[in-house]
Amino acid sequence: MSAVAMQPRLTPEQYLALERKATTKSEYLNGYVYAMAGASREHNLIAGNIFGELRFQLRGRPCEVYVNDMRLKVSSTGLYTYPDVAVVCDGPRFEDTHLDTLLNPIVLVEVLSPSTEAYDRGEKFAHYRRLESLQEYFLVAQDRIRVEHYLRQGEQWLLTELSDLDDVLHAVSIGCDLPLREIYAKVELPASEGSKGA
Fold first, then answer.
1. pLDDT in tens, 21-47
2. Distance between CA atoms of 142 and 158, rounded to whole angstroms?
3. Spatial distance between the Cα atoms of 89 and 42, rounded to a whole number of angstroms
4. Which among 81, 109, 131, 177 is most buried, taking Cβ atoms within 10 Å?
5. Of residues 15, 17, 38, the one with CA closest to residue 27
6. φ, ψ at 98 (rounded to 5°)
7. pLDDT per position as a tens digit, 125-182
């Protein structure tokens, strides 16, 4: 979330009316609208790779996968945002008849960037944890091989970290396996990582 909010304060209805006509995406919280920055090549490749793997593995099942442009609302906190990838199963619920603001994701993915990493780990995850439907949250680095997998277990969140291209991310709640080699396919990593994605 950008540190500078665009003024003036808006109601959620005013935000949605503007957002649905806008050519760029913005987040909304507590009356303020926050412009979202564009994404890097690596960010787009990783989000696309994850979307592609999940879409392929979930075909024929009662799940939908969205990438980048599906707005999400955390009803209990009022946050409107755009996760990099969202999965919903057994019937998506939307805020209204526009069907463009999802309420009940089971899995959310954020690809980290220098400008959003602290927010994605901290305040945004605090909002996401308030979603009763959410079972898993993935934080994926774009400058190194690293995926952090948070799995809900009752009131607790269990963290598993993966950092090798031969590792496989097990998305328990949706029964999908995402090899890190596929997540990082065609992503050029710094030389210190020792190799590039295939």
1. 999 999 999 999 999 888 899 999 999
2. 22
3. 28
4. 109
5. 15
6. -70, -20
7. 999 999 999 999 999 999 999 999 999 999 999 999 999 999 999 999 999 999 999 9
Residues β-bridged to residue 24: none
Query: CA angle, 163 as apex, 161 and 114 as ends, to 5°?
Result: 85
Q: Which residue has the tokens 């003036």?
A: 8
| Strands across the sheet containing 71-74 | 32-35, 26-29, 79-81, 71-74, 101-102
Residue 78 to residue 64: CA distance in whole angstroms:
23
Please classify residue 24 by burial: count the beta carbons closer than 10 Å to its beta carbon, then call 0-12 exposed, 13-18 middle and 19+ buried.
exposed
Residue 160 phi, psi dihedral angles, 5° rounding: -125, 135
Task: For the chain, give the number of residues.
Answer: 198
Domains and CATH numbers, the chain: 1-36 (no CATH), 39-193 (3.90.1570.10)
d(CA 32, CA 72): 16
Q: Beta partners for 179?
A: 168
